[in-house]
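User: Reviewer 2 asked us to show a designed sequence for the structure in our supplementary figure. I'm pasting the structure tokens here. Could you produce the per-position amino acids so we can include them in the response letter?
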């Protein structure tokens, strides 16, 4: 029997299964198996405590909020949210929504100060959960998170160069997933799309007008018109004259997994002796090239951003700005 610090009150892990010990009879009520993960345990826990006074505590509210949002989330977002909401439920296990004040929120967010993006994600989730609790009638007044400013993000200034791209491609072809990684790199630099969206791309999205896609993260719908470079990159993905299923496919004809492509990227960078380069930096390079060629608004459209400020964060400061000398 194990009582870990991250579990809700009266929840224990025994023989690979979570149990809730009820009061006052001390009965062991089975929840879920350990292999199903903590999010599943919290949902089962919430269903049980809903019959008890603890239905109004934060873990149960967080679970109900997450379940209400789940149909809107992409699978990658769902995985992130399951992980973040478990952390939040653990931190607020003994709180009701009415007890969550601005100082309490600030103390919780302080633990993420070293990672501003993560801090802002937790801030956004906590604000939505407390708003959900207000709709349920579990708290009144303003949202305490509103008094806490977002963490300031430092724009990533690393830019991938043409020399580095060539070195990574050469190194990639020496290892597993090499050809798939090279094709993905070409598509990412030309289209500016996220790796996950490129891996999801299917041949029925390749039309006479261009590539039609809907971004998984934002739902933004794009038509990327043809250019000679884009057409060549797409044609390179064709296998044995077949244009069925996913555009980027493994040797066995399956869709590449994100983890596989990312691991291939890390290995290729290591072989090429390139450090501090993320696979997401390809998207930043595409945005920077588009801005330099056609302006910031065109870069915003290609990346699918909803605000020009977001595009500026992506592309500014990644390379020295070209200027003419004084006369």
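Assistant: Here is a per-position design you can include in the supplement:
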């Amino acid at each position: 029997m194990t009582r870990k610090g991250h579990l809700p009150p009266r929840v224990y892990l025994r023989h690979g299964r979570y149990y809730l010990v009820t009061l006052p009879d001390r009965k062991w009520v089975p929840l879920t198996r350990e292999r199903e993960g903590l999010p599943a345990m919290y949902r089962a826990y919430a269903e049980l405590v809903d019959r008890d006074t603890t239905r109004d505590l934060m873990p149960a509210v967080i679970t109900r909020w997450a379940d209400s949002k789940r149909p809107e989330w992409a699978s990658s977002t769902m995985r992130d949210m399951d992980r973040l909401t478990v952390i939040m439920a653990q931190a607020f296990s003994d709180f009701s929504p009415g007890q969550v004040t601005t100082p309490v929120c600030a103390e919780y967010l302080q633990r993420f100060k070293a990672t501003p993006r993560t801090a802002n994600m937790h801030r956004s989730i906590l604000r939505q959960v407390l708003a959900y609790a207000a709709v349920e009638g579990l708290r009144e007044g303003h949202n305490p998170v509103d008094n806490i400013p977002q963490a300031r993000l430092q724009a990533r200034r690393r830019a991938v160069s043409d020399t580095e791209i060539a070195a990574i491609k050469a190194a990639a072809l020496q290892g597993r997933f090499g050809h798939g990684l090279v094709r993905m790199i070409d598509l990412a630099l030309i289209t500016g799309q996220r790796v996950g969206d490129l891996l999801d791309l299917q041949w029925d999205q390749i039309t006479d007008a261009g590539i039609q896609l809907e971004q998984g993260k934002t739902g933004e719908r794009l038509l990327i018109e043809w250019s000679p470079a884009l057409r060549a990159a797409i044609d390179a993905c064709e296998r044995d004259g077949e244009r069925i299923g996913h555009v980027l496919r493994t040797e066995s004809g399956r869709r590449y997994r994100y983890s596989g492509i990312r691991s291939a990227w890390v290995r290729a960078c290591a072989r090429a002796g390139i450090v501090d380069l993320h696979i997401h930096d390809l998207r930043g390079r595409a945005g920077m090239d588009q801005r330099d060629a056609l302006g910031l608004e065109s870069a915003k459209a290609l990346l699918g951003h909803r605000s020009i400020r977001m595009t500026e964060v992506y592309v500014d400061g990644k390379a020295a700005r070209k200027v003419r000398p004084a006369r």
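For the response letter, you might also mention the following. The CA atoms of residues 210 and 225 lie 4 Å apart. The longest helix spans residues 116-135.
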